[in-house]
Structures are given as C-alpha cells and as structure tokens.
Amino acid sequence: MKVHDSKAAPNPRRVRIFVAEKGLDVPFEEVDIVNAVNRQAEFRQKNPMGTVPVLELDDGTCIAESAAICRYFEEIQPELPLLGVDATDRAVVAMWDRRMEFELLLPIADSFRQHHAFFKGRIEQCPEYAEVAKRRAVQNLAWLDEVLADRQFVAGERFSVADITALCAVDFGRVSKIGIAPEQKNLARWHEAVSARPSAKA
Q1: Taking the model in full, what pTM does it have?
Q2: Domains in the chain, please, with CATH?
Q3: Looking at the DSSP assignment, which residues form a beta bridge with residue 54?
Q4: What is the pLDDT of residue 132?
C-alpha cells in the first residue's frame, strides 16, 4: 500500500500524523499539486475528485478523504486508539473531529482557497467569502480556547484524531494570518503540547 501525499496541504498531514501515532510503516508518495498532477486523468482514476490524500491498497482499491483513510488505519492497527475506545467515546471523538473539520479547518482552508493566487483558475474564487471565512475561523479559535479551559485535549483527556485535525487547521492558518491570539492561553497550552509530540513533525 501507499499514500498519495502532498506536504503543502493540511489534509494529507492529518493522515501522516495519524500514521506516525500508530507507528505504522507506510510509504508516502508526493503528488505535484502545484503543477496540478492531481487534476490529470491518471490521478483521477484513483480519485475522481482530484484531491489528496489517497490511500492505494495492494489490490488497487483507492480510498480518498482523510477521515476514511484514518478509519482504515485504525481498523488494521487498533492499538493507541485515536478514534475512541468504546461506543460512547467513539461517538464523542467523532463529534469533536467533525467540529474541528467543519468549524475550524474548513473556514481556515476557505480563507486561503477563495483569495490566494494558487487557486486562481483552478476554482471559482470569491474574495469576499474569504474574509467571511477568516472572521469565522478567528471566532472559532476563541471558542476552542474556551472549550480547552477544562480539558487537556479537544475531545477530553486523551489525544485523538480531533487534536490532529485541529492542529493541522491551526498550523495551516498561518498562511492566511490566522493564529492563536495572545490572550488565548488555553489554546496556546494545547498547541504547544500537541506540537511537541513526535508525530507532529510527520
């Protein structure tokens, strides 16, 4: 198996961190998204959406979407559970991971996609929406700071995929000048802790 990857994008990084936390030895193959290799016909046979990451199994099965890929790796390597330990915990982790994806990563990514020159001609851009997305991301960082006032990690007292998604979102925010405010001490404490994990360098 191998993962079609891109060091420049936040979603592939979610998978790299997940795999590193699991201690799995999985090859990652860089896809040249700058030159739109992911949009070409050969790659679209693996993923019609033309996005990375894509997990390609030995039998030719291709699995796209970070959450789906992480679920596959959780199934084949249950130890160090990152998606929860029982029915309740799995539901709680899934809830928080979706919140981190939709309330943090998505607006941060949209603030980039909707105005940056990299996407000019690749998607229909709306610079006005980029500003709306940026404001939403800033508001949600403040909300997450409040959430982290009484817990060590995003979904509770255990590191999980929700922390991975949030970390990738916060770090990607730098390209759009979206970051942790000086007064957001809880968020800063969390970010320092998860960034110090060896997997964060994946």
Answers
A1: 0.95
A2: 2-76 (3.40.30.10), 87-201 (1.20.1050.10)
A3: 4, 64
A4: 96
